[in-house]
Specification:
Blueprint (H helix, E strand, L loop, with lengths): L1 E5 L5 H11 L14 H12 L4 E8 L2 E10 L4 E7 L8 H12 L4 E6 L3 H9 L2 E6 L3 E6 L2
Parallel strand pairs: 4-5
Antiparallel strand pairs: 1-2, 2-3, 3-4, 5-7, 6-7
The structure holds coenzyme A (COA).
């Protein structure tokens, strides 16, 4: 069973370790730099200091298996997420997205590239509906 834990500075090292292990699998995520631990730590430290973001560690029996975050804006909250490569296709992202949509009071949106079928599937399984699409990306909102 997974649970979400609000990210704090104590999680920074395991986050960086996991990003380095997973960086070849995280090319879809613009905010993760292809760099060493120092670069990853510095980029992420800047992001977590931004007041609009709330990050959660996803744990499965206390093991770090991924991250999910919300980015707040005036009229909605945008989701982002990633799962450790050894824990994918077990339904973890779908569970985490469902949990987070239950915690948020504003409309929840997410976008993903057309070349990311796993993410598209996660959003569909979690009850999101497509509201926009172009040649590169699809935008979803949670159907309340
Ligand atoms: C996208 C991601 C978060 C999915 O995490 P996950 O825990 O594996 O997701 P789930 O197990 O909940 O669901 C994955 C679904 O995608 C399907 N899937 C996986 N790879 C697929 C592929 N290449 N083509 C089609 N479907 C695929 C799985 O079969 C599963 O669907 P199912 O339950 O109907 O069988 C994970 O792959 C990841 O971290 N990717 C890199 C970061 C990323 O892309 N984040 C999202 C940015 S928008």
């Amino acid at each position: 069973m997974i649970h979400l834990q609000l990210f704090n500075q104590d999680h920074l090292q395991e986050f960086c370790d996991s990003v380095i292990i997973n960086r070849g699998h995280l090319s879809e995520l613009g905010w993760i730099e292809y760099g060493n631990q120092i670069v990853v730590k510095s980029v992420f430290t800047d992001i977590i200091d931004s007041p609009e973001y709330i990050f959660y560690v996803i744990r499965d029996d206390d093991k770090f298996v991924g991250m999910i975050e919300t980015k707040d804006s005036e009229d909605s909250v945008k989701l982002g997420y990633w799962i450790d490569k050894d824990h994918r296709n077990k339904g973890i992202a779908t569970q985490a997205v469902k949990m987070l949509t239950g915690l948020v009071s504003k409309p929840v949106i997410a976008d993903t590239t057309l070349t990311n079928p796993a993410s598209i599937r996660v959003l569909e399984k979690a009850g999101f509906v497509k509201y926009r699409e172009d040649k590169v990306a699809i935008w979803y909102r949670f159907a309340t």
